Amino acid sequence: MKIQRLSTCSFKFYSPQGKVVMVDPWLTNDPFWPASEKAPEKLGEIDVVAVTHAHFDHASGIEEIMSQNEKAFIVGQFEYAIGLHQRGVKNAVPMNFGARIDLCGIGFSMVQASHTNSEMLPSGKMEAVGAPAGYVIEFEDGRKVYVSGDTGLTAEMKFVVADYHKPLIAILPVTGLMVMEPEQAAYAANAIGCKYVIPCHDFPKEIADAANPDGYREFLKQFPVQDSYKKIETFMGIMRKDYPHIEAIFVPIGGSVDL
User: Fold this and answer.
1) Phi/psi zone of residue 24: left (φ > 0), alpha (ψ -120 to 50 degrees), beta?
2) Half-sphere exposure of 153 (CA within 13 A, CB side)
3) Beta bridge partners of 250
4) Positive or negative CA dihedral for 51, 152, 10, 18?
5) Quick check: 124 pLDDT over 80?
6) Which of 24, 84, 105, 135 has the fewest CB atoms nearer than 10 Å to its CB?
7) Position 121 pLDDT exceeds 90
8) Given a cut of 80, is residue 123 above it in pLDDT?
């Protein structure tokens, strides 16, 4: 299974049977998403989009994807998905915690996350749209990937994700910045019992490393996050020292890994 990272928290999965799952697309005004991956054929190949929460860096790419494939399913927490449906997204699929749905032969189980969930309205006002979530995604061959979304450390990771779902791979935010700090994320990976962990929610060290350097420069005027790469280094060091039985894999934006 190929896992491709396209932005800070945006991941694309190519399933064993040729289906394509996108989690948390940030496309609108995203300075990181590689231009080649914005091509119509790349967006049009996506079969299912799973949204953990509605913040701009996780959900602002839905319209772009739907413009290339109106048959794609958009999975989200109940209030958010209903809102999408009311705005004309025909294949918005509402879920809630504890539920599982199967789309295109792939299972999506919704689990809790500790964060907030709101979206920016055209008026500029922020509106709450239900609760944030994570997903355990079960692919056709039985392998499971836990995508936590933005979250703090939760008991859910041990008693639901680990003990019940037993994922092979976990994708976790590790950089502080309103999510888990590296020490907490490493503890979470161990509690989850995964074989592989992929850290995220980091930003490129150098402006030139972004797909759109000018866009990144403008982004940094509002969100000074350039030192988050240091948290990745801390996380990877903790994993090597304290949890060597788990393989920590850093995937740079635009990169991919086959597992």
Assistant:
1) left
2) 16
3) none
4) negative
5) no
6) 105
7) no
8) no
pLDDT (tens digit per residue) in 177-213: 899 999 999 999 999 999 999 999 999 999 999 999 9
Pairing of strands 92-95, 118-120: unpaired
- Strand pairing category for 169-173 and 196-200: parallel
Indicate the burial class of 155 (C-beta count within 10 angstroms; 0-12, 13-18, 19 or more).
exposed
Q: What amino acid is encoded at 229 in this protein? A: Y
Residues in Cβ contact with 1 at an 8 Å cutoff, skipping those fewer than 6 apart: 13, 14, 15, 16, 139, 141, 143, 258, 259
Sign (positive/negative) of CA torsion 107, 105, 57, 82? Answer: negative
pLDDT band at 125; cut points 50, 70, 90? confident
Inter-residue contact 118 to 127 (CB < 8 Å): yes
Binned at pLDDT 50, 70 and 90, residue 168 comes out as: very high
* CB neighbourhood size of 61 (10 A): 26
Structural domains for the chain? 2-251 (3.60.15.10)
Q: What gap in Å lies between CA 194 and CA 165, rounded to an integer?
A: 10
Q: Which residues contact 167 (CB under 8 A, 6 or more apart)?
A: 136, 144, 145, 146, 161, 192, 194
- Other C-beta atoms within 10 Å of 199: how many? 25
Overall average pLDDT of the 162-178 stretch: 96
* Three-point CA angle 212, 218, 223, nearest 5°: 110
Q: Is the pTM of this model over 0.85?
A: yes
